[in-house]
Amino acid sequence: MNTNNTSERDRLITRYALTTSPLYEPVHAYLAPLSLPPHSSEMEEAAHRIFDALKTSVTNRMAKDPELEAALNTIAALPQATISDFYRAAFEDVRQPDSDITRTYVSVLYARALQHLGRDVERDKSTFLATAQRLFEDSRATLAGTLGYLEALHPDFVGHLVLEAEARRAENPFFQERLEHAAELFHRYGDGDPNWLGEKAQPPTVMGVENLGSSAALPAHMAMAMTLHA
User: Fold this and answer.
1) Considering the chain, what is the average pLDDT of its residues?
2) Which of 106, 111, 229 is nearest to 162 (CA)?
3) Measured between alpha carbons, how far is 206 from 195 in angstroms, rounded to an integer?
4) How far apart are alpha carbons 127 and 129 in whole angstroms?
5) What is the separation of C-alpha 40 from the centre of its chain, rounded to a whole number of angstroms?
6) C-alpha of 183 from chain center
7) Which pTM value belongs to this model?
8) DSSP characters for 91-149?
9) What is the distance between the alpha carbons of residues 168 and 177, in angstroms, rounded to a whole number?
């Protein structure tokens, strides 16, 4: 059989397998807001600036608050522990030439965070910023609830999310554009250093606990806490 035909067959099998999984619906609910273009690129830039302000606030708080650092350690353990061999292998069936698991993971989380911020910033920027700061800094009950939800996620949720996001990149130009723009904005946290990108089809260990304080890992964990919740 022709190699190209074999690759397309593998892609289709993987693609349809995703839609039959019980994880398809919760993952689709998470990704659906990214299926259409944003209201404007200016809105995403404004959301990025708000997120950056939150990141600075959390960075300052971490130095004084062991409980917050412990919570972020819990979040950091999720992506590197929950992408199974099956999902890493399946990722190769749908992977775009410029992709790796970490880039897709970070891009979809950050695109979702910007969408979330942009929606609420449009309503009331000052109130939203104050609420978001309380989420990451002061509200122990809210943080505990977020951690409880994240820890209760299906073990394959993160793997399924990354795989579905990668598959949709090739199918929806609006989705692709939003992930690409999110990656460009997120790259600013890496200070131009590409080392936050992972190896192809490997868990995003560069986002793991041992790199909690890195310029790229912290915003990824914040994006997860902000967007993956009950």
Assistant:
1) 79
2) 106
3) 8
4) 6
5) 21
6) 10
7) 0.83
8) HHHH--TT--HHHHHHHHHHHHHHHHHHHHHHHHHHHHHHHHHHHHHT-HHHHHHHHHH
9) 11
Cβ partners under 8 Å of residue 144, min gap 6: none
pLDDT tens digits for 31-89?
999 998 877 778 888 889 888 888 888 888 877 777 777 787 788 777 767 778 888 88
- How many degrees, rounded to 5, is the angle at CA 187 between CA 183 and CA 188? 130
Residue 150 has pLDDT above 90, yes or no: no
3-state secondary structure of 191: coil
More confident position, 187 or 208: 187
Distance of alpha carbon 44 from alpha carbon 36, whole angstroms: 13
Q: What is the pLDDT of residue 175?
A: 95
- CA-wise closest residue to 195 among 112, 103, 99, 111: 103
Q: Which residue type, as a one-letter code, is found at position 111?
A: A
Backbone φ and ψ for 190, nearest 5 degrees, come out as: -85, 5
By the 10 Å C-beta count (0-12 exposed, 13-18 middle, 19+ buried), 141 is classed as exposed
- How many Cβ atoms from other residues are within 10 Å of residue 25's Cβ? 10
Count of Cβ atoms closer than 10 Å to residue 226 Cβ: 20
- Residue 51, burial from CB neighbour count under 10 angstroms (0-12, 13-18, 19+): buried
